Amino acid sequence: MLPLKEKDKPIVQKLLSAGCCARCILRFCCIRAQAVYRQPQQDTLRELQAFICNTENSKSQDSAASVSTEENNKSHDAAVSEAPEDPPSKRAKLEPSETDAQAEEDAAAVVKLRGEESRVCVVCLGILQEFCGTPQAVKIAETVKAENYEFDSLVLSVSLPAQLCVREHSCWLHVKKEVREKGSVLDKDDVIQVKEAFKWIMQGLVAKELGGVSVVTRSAFEVGVEFTHEATDSDCHFLASACPDCFKPTKNKQSVFTRMAVVKALEKIPDARFLRLYPCPPAQPSSCCSLQDIQCLHVSVFVAGRYNKFCRSLPQTPWVIDGERRMESSVEELIAAPLLSAFRADGFNFSSSGREDVDVRTLGNGRPFAMELLNPHKSRFSRVEMKQLQETINKSSDKIRVRDLQIVSREAMSRMKEGEEEKTKSYTALIWTQKPIQREDIVFIDDIKELTLDQKTPLRVLHRRALAVRQRVIHSMNTRFLDPHHFYLGLKTQAGTYIKEFVHGDFGRTKPNLCQLLKTDTDILELDVESVDVDWPPALPE
Ligand code: ZN
Predict the structure, then answer these.
(1) What are phi and psi for residue 432, nearest 5 degrees?
(2) What percent helix, strand, coil does the chain show, rounded to 5?
């Protein structure tokens, strides 16, 4: 028994004769009992037909409103404005002919529908007819199984052709007026969405085919089902001239008729205008939607750690100049390769707390980094497994080494970038001096504290950074004499200080600089990062 009320009768009648499928009619009657959608649609259709044939109790109260001709509406409006209640004489006069007309229409609708149970629905274009059943659930489950994901729950998402919104709007207008005349309102938001009904029917079936996995509303694993219907794509086109500002071309989209844009336009367009430009109810489609694609997507997993770089010819990220690759590898690729294969991910995004030049080593505890692994097919790793993965990375190359490798949350990653400018970094630089020096000539440097530098954007990065003067602080320095032309300079600085430029002066663009302090030309021969003082990710026991 369908949970329909007397007030639903005109909706059922109108939509049946408009060519809506049984489940779409349930949607427009705002029925939220999921089980009703799951029963075979032929059964629902028969029940709906029986429901409208059973007019005994309702005839007298329903007939006036159930024939919706313009003339009837006009006379009704007039009656309301002229006199609050219909005069009995007028009502008596109208009733017999309308009742006859209604009975005829009912009978005609039933006959028509008996022969056309397989007709493609004018609203859902067959999605709630052809695509809601075990064969489709099997197809979805097969796709999921073939991709070999590791998951224990999934969320089913549905992508529908945008014109479904236009058709839905048309049908809603088709019944709205009538419902309003009966003294109630049909809020568009109360109509059950096609998506919703589809999920109510399919979730259980898909779950069953996947051996009882739970199909839920929120999960890290999403199975997307995409429908298209080329034959009715042009349904949306009239909206572009009616609401041009809703349809701005965007770079990444193939069509301006996105679902979002169409929904926005439908909110703006006045009912009268819509009805002039689009048939109401919508025209009968000759074919069903097609199931374009079934896509599986797992949310990203984030892996963090610290890396050392022991090589002076390894860039942090692939180094490409004019489309040509300069170095055969990079820090991110060396770390990513074992992670991609272990997580069976489609790709990655690498980020780190600052970066070093290709010829700079990163020693000490290393530099914090995080890697977003895209669409991982496997996402759960124990501490021990992560430790093994770290070993795999470390064995794969002697140019880098990672530590503290761990899975982190997306939110935790922001800690790496937080207050980056305020953090301190320690370096060791090998310095060359033009004038010969003695041990005593450089010791005064050890006493310099909190030296503020004005650094114009270095010439070597000017092609990718805006010209600016930035103030940076060298907190402290220490020296280690090597020979009359060389010494080691240790520096503890504010993050973002350009060390090379501080040493050679960058043609006076960094002031003060080491040349000024030592009153001779100086240059930097080697640079090592000794520590990056960011306390994230948490250190793990070795
Ligand atoms: Zn339908």
Answers:
(1) -110, 135
(2) 45, 25, 35
Active-site residue, 398 included: no
The mean predicted confidence, pLDDT, of the chain is 88
Q: Measure the CA–CA gap between 375 and 503, rounded to whole angstroms.
A: 45
- Same domain for 313 and 172? no
Considering the candidates 86, 346, 357, 359, report the single residue annotated as catalytic. Answer: 357
* Widest pairwise Cα distance in the chain: 121
Q: Do residue 255 and residue 154 come from a single domain? A: yes
Indicate the burial class of 321 (C-beta count within 10 angstroms; 0-12, 13-18, 19 or more): exposed
Reported as a single tens digit per residue, the pLDDT across 426-460 is 999 999 999 999 999 999 999 999 999 999 999 99
Distance of alpha carbon 352 from the chain centroid = 24
Q: Which two tokens mark 441?
A: 């000539």
Give how many domains the chain has, as a whole number. Answer: 3
Same domain (yes/no): 274, 253: yes
CA 61 – CA 50 distance, rounded (Å): 19
Q: Are strands 347-352 and 469-483 parallel, antiparallel or unpaired?
A: unpaired
Q: Which domain holds residue 17?
A: 6-78+98-296
Q: If you measure from the C-alpha of residue 134 to the centroid of ligand 1, how many angstroms do you get, rounded to a whole number?
A: 18
Given a contact cutoff of 8 angstroms between Cβ atoms, the answer to whether 143 and 294 are in contact is yes
What are the tokens at 268? 């703006």
Tokens of 478: 């220490």
Question: Per-residue pLDDT for 488 more than 50?
Answer: yes
Give the pair of three-digit tokens for residue 424. Answer: 């301190």
Dist. CA 274 → ligand 1 center (Å):
21
Same domain, 226 and 112: yes
Instruction: Give the closest residue to 22 by CA, choosing from 6, 1, 8, 43.
Output: 43
Cα(288) to centroid(ligand 1), Å: 11
Beta carbons within 10 angstroms of residue 538's beta carbon:
11
Query: Measured in angstroms, how far is the CA atom of residue 319 from the centroid of ligand 1?
Result: 54
* CA 270 to ligand 1 center in whole angstroms: 25
